[in-house]
Amino acid sequence: MNDDRPEDEARPDEAPGDGVGGLERPTGEHRPRWRETLGIVLANKLAAFGLVVLVVLILTAIFADLVAPYAINAQDLTRRFEPPSLQHLFGTDEFGRDLFSRVVFGSRVSLQVGAVAVSISLALGTFIGLISGYRRGWLDTVLMRTMDVLFSFPVVLLAIALVAVLGPSLRNTMLAVGIVFTPIFARVVRGSALSVSQDLHVRAARSLGASDLRIVFRHVLPNVAAPVIVQTSLSLAFAILIEAALSFVGVGVQPPEPAWGLMLSDAQRYRTQGWWLSVFPGLAIFLTVMAFNLVGDGLRDALDPQQRSVIESRGAGGDA
Amino acid sequence: MARFVLRRTAQSLVALLGVSIVVFALIHLVPGDPIRAALGTRFDPEVYELLRERSGLDQPLVVQYVDWLGRAVQGDLGVSFRSGAPVTTVLAARIPPTAVLAVASLVVGIVVAIPAGIIAAVRQGKAADYLATGFSQVGVSIPDFWYGIMLILIFSVTLGWLPPLGYTEFGEDPVDFARRLILPAVTAGVVTGAILTRFVRSSVLEALNADHVRLARAKGLPERYILRHHVLRNAWIPIVTVTGLQLGTLLGGIVIVEVVFAWPGLGRLALDAVERRDYPVLQGAVLFMAGAFLVINLLVDLLYAKLDPRIAVR
Q1: A53: contact with B, CB 8 A cutoff
Q2: Structural contact between residues B81 and B39, judged by C-beta atoms closer than 8 angstroms
């Protein structure tokens, strides 16, 4: 969209006088203060709730074999479409499989897709953004116009098109989602890198003869961390949402993987036989996405002093 | 202003050219021969040769692209691998349902977001604010297709008030058209409304804290007057812009909603094309939707510059 967005103008973790301070206190002092950041995140009740949900979710995914009472594909055709009960907390599906166990195992797929896809976009986007912001010139123009082209597609549509040509599978879903998110990271990193590369400590390092590689990794990269962390959390939420959507329409994760989107797709065929088939996988997606969004919002508030001061002055804990 | 319009239009044209390259490249990312992949193992060699010749896949890539682009500019996007019908004809039939759904969803979003956002900002920190921000948080996190399924379960399966699936032409039966539009429009519209609510709230909050509003308060003007004449008058420009941009975003999101409600729009067409490996139709649908997205964003940017001349100067 509009290239003249103010993202290039301000670095979220920049405090007044940081440029001079940066010369006196190279690198380390620019890094976010983790303990303080975590404290601010936890002080925000919604973000703390999101963090708790995420921890539970991650533990569930890791220990799915212990949490799930039944095997992932254990069928009992005598117990098809059973409503939720103590024996089957979320009921059973068309093959008499325990839906709770499948939802538990589904957390692995969602978190895996989210983590791998966002890692791909994080790595690619950071690399492109750093080069663009630090080197500028024609390389910056070419890379950013390429990112603009990818930005010109509705995200879901581009992901569908990519998976369609690569072939529907777990791996290709992760790859497609990773590609569609790359421009966001590239823009965020470029904006910060543009600003940081003009800081006194970076100019000082350059004048002392430090190589470009050293400057980028030692001085620029640590200082673009804050916006990237916020973007990572928000992108994880969106990546999980897109994976679920792709699996729902049949171009994402394929059976017999227990993906939540796939479970919802199956539930569509049996919508009159059991409401639980549609409700629980959807709730799992919703809770996961909301948890990442809440943590992302909390991190943004914590790592963005301007935003933080606005919130504190208004005495509000939610998003502003 | 004229310079801004020219620069912004040129940028969009360059982006559109880039989009065309990506869309063209899609078919070449298909492993192996796309026509053979589309036709399956048992196919008529004559049909294969005909499609291969008509799609120009035996030519060098650059020649293929220039040829494809030249034809695309003239409205010729090739023929469907499946039906043999021109892609533009196939697309033309699917545009009205998608356009109707997108506009209806936007209307639902605006109707929800404008009052919710304004009330949340004016009553900041009170119950109404928490309710509106809570709705917004839920709305941006909820998978629209799941929400759509829930609406079908409640309003169609359980209560039997509205038809769960399908589309009726307005000219055929206006009442049935409206009944079938409600659930998909609410599904896509509430997500849009959630995003817009956040934005309306923050825009109004920003305007409420502006110096001229403080001055108006200091002069003793009534709050309602200040809200109408000083706050909303300044807040509405960015709100109009973001609302316009949401129309573009809706085009992407609607793909999934169309599947849930068996809505015969462009998104459904694209997904059917994926399933049938009908790559020219997929290319056409993606190109049209990405092009529409770009054009809408361009028009919104130009409108923004018109409403707020500072944008064009920056």
Answers
A1: no
A2: yes
CB B159 within 8 A of CB B220: no
Question: B203 pLDDT exceeds 90?
Answer: no
Work out the average pLDDT over A237-266.
Answer: 89
Q: Do A319 and B198 touch (CB under 8 A)?
A: yes
For the whole prediction, is pTM greater than 0.90?
no
Q: Are B216 and B234 in contact (CB under 8 A)?
A: no
- The total of other beta-carbon atoms located within 10 Å of residue B255's CB is 26
**Is there a domain that residue A10 lies in?**
no
- The A residues from 230 to 289 touching B (CB cutoff 8 Å) are 237, 241, 244-245, 248-251, 261, 264, 267-268, 271-272, 275, 278-279, 281-282, 285-286, 289
What CATH number did the domain enclosing A113 receive? 1.10.3720.10
Q: Is residue B13 part of a domain?
A: no
| Residue A21 is assigned to a structural domain of this protein | no
Q: For chain B, say whether A165 makes contact (Cβ under 8 Å).
A: yes
> Does residue A111 form part of some domain?
yes
What is the number of residues in chain B? 314
Q: What is the pLDDT of residues B122-168, one digit of tens each?
A: 888 888 888 998 998 898 899 988 999 999 989 998 898 988 888 88
The domain containing residue B166 runs over which residues?
Answer: 95-268
The answer to whether A294 and A50 are in contact (CB under 8 A) is: yes
Give residue-wise pLDDT tens across range B12-41: 888 889 989 988 888 777 766 677 766 766
Alpha-carbon gap: A191 to the closest alpha carbon of chain B (Å): 17
- Reported ipTM exceeds the 0.90 cut: no
